[in-house]
Amino acid sequence: MFWRKNKNKPTEFKCSECGQVHSDWPALAFKSPANYDFLSDQEKSELGKLDPDFCEIHYKDQIDRFIRVTLTQKVNDTCENLDYGLWVSLSEKSYSDYKANFDNENHETGYFGWLCSNIPEYGDTMSIPCDVVTKTGNSRPEIFPYQDFDHQLVKDYYDGITKTEAEKRINEMTKRLGNNELI
Question: In 10 A of CB 125, how many CB atoms?
Fold first, then answer.
């Protein structure tokens, strides 16, 4: 996707998925957790299992489990929010419960998870503790970073960011499309 600015029109982008031009902000979504991205192509084929909502990495002594989630970033000087499609790791028990109830439209619960997506504007965002809250209607779970965790992402999540900062992030992340980090 790319951004195109025009003085007389709202910011627009061309979606890399559907090819259409939209005037709403895109969700900035990662197609896989960073832990999976760190693997070589051979390790991905031998150890990894990835689909749009779940990822597993089967090491000899452990299995790492990840689910796709959303994070909504408040933007202070506009009525829009900036949405992220991220990944978190869950315990085996939480992962199994989420997977078993994945198609249950009435399943509402909460889990503890660790953020497993590196958001470029924040440096290392791996391992920020989060509450993971499922929603009825089969929407992806939403995460809420622990407010007392000392990280700029957490501060910005609770304090909000400016519209200029949100558009800068969108521009920066869409430039990275060539490295297949985003979908």
Answer: 20
Is 183 a residue whose pLDDT tops 80?
Answer: no
Question: DSSP H helical segments within 2-91, as ranges?
Answer: 34-37, 41-47
3-state secondary structure of 180: coil
Domain range holding 112?
A: 27-179
Number of folded domains in the chain? 1
**pLDDT score at 12:** 56
Alpha-helical segments (H) within the chain: 34-37, 41-47, 92-100, 152-159, 163-175
- Range list of β-strands (E), 74-121: 82-89, 110-115
pTM over cut 0.85: no
DSSP 53: S
Residue 21 lies in a domain: no
Compute the half-sphere exposure of residue 13: CA atoms within 13 Å on the CB side of its CA: 19
Say whether 19 sits in a helix, a strand or coil.
Answer: coil
pLDDT of residue 17: 52
Per-residue pLDDT of 50-84, as tens digits, reads 999 999 999 999 999 999 999 999 999 888 899 99
